[in-house]
Design a protein that fits this description.
The protein is an alpha/beta fold. It is about 35% helix and about 10% strand. The protein has 9 helices and 6 strands, in the order ααβαβαβαβααββαα. α3 links the parallel β1 and β2. The longest helix has 17 residues. The protein is globular, with a radius of gyration of 18 Å. The chain starts with a helix and ends with a helix.
Length: about 210
């Protein structure tokens, strides 16, 4: 939108953000999250975004890990049954937004098995900000919002996805989670985004 609407006029792009305070406090492990090793995907399950075949391949390639999906199931009946039929896959369904930081914090690996399409290329995924805020290893397909992110994010092609997740699972946990907030999120709080929006409105209102 910024590119198309900004061809002949000034456009300000204000990205998505993250609730920094919600992710800054360590939370207890959710009772319904399986024990480690656990791989977590958080978000709405929808075939416009989620590569169901890649998810199934991941579960088959890592039989010793639990692959957990936390979010509303909007998949077709065939796709949903395909995932539910795998012994090490769990679809937990939707959870309150305030509960989500705990699921992310206690994942051994967070995953983004998304399809790369014009639709996913148009997104600025909040998931990228929240996954970074959780300070857990992340493996993503090369979709918008994740390309170019540094460790602990690994961006790989679908053919290398399961191997990359397996490598992340075997990596010893970091002795220190690093600085808070992570450098990439230093100005990505919703408060900062609101201030940016207010500055734009003030400039527009002040213009003749």
């Amino acid at each position: 939108l910024a590119r198309t609407r900004g061809a002949h006029r000034r456009v300000e792009l204000i990205p998505n953000g993250v609730d920094v305070s919600a992710f800054g406090s360590t939370l207890p492990r959710p009772a319904d999250l399986p024990p480690s090793p656990v791989v977590v995907y958080a978000g709405t399950l929808h075939e416009d975004r989620l590569d169901v075949g890649l998810c199934a391949d991941l579960a088959v390639a890592l039989p010793g890990a639990r692959v957990v999906f936390v979010g509303p199931d909007c998949l077709s009946a065939v796709a949903s049954s395909r995932l539910r039929g795998l012994a090490n896959v769990e679809l937990l369904g939707a959870r309150p937004h305030e509960a989500m930081p705990a699921y992310l914090q206690h994942a051994d690996v967070l995953v983004v098995p998304h399809r790369v399409t014009p639709f996913t290329e148009s997104l600025d995924p909040i998931k990228a900000y929240e996954y970074l805020a959780a300070r857990r290893p992340v493996v993503a397909t090369p979709v918008a919002g994740f390309r170019g992110l540094p460790d602990p994010v690994a961006v790989v092609e679908p053919g290398a996805f399961a191997q990359a997740v397996g490598t992340a699972l075997r990596r010893p946990p970091a002795t220190s989670p690093g600085p808070w907030p992570p450098p990439q999120l230093a100005r990505a709080s919703w408060q900062e985004r609101a201030r940016s929006f207010a500055q734009v409105l003030a400039r527009v209102l002040a213009s003749p």
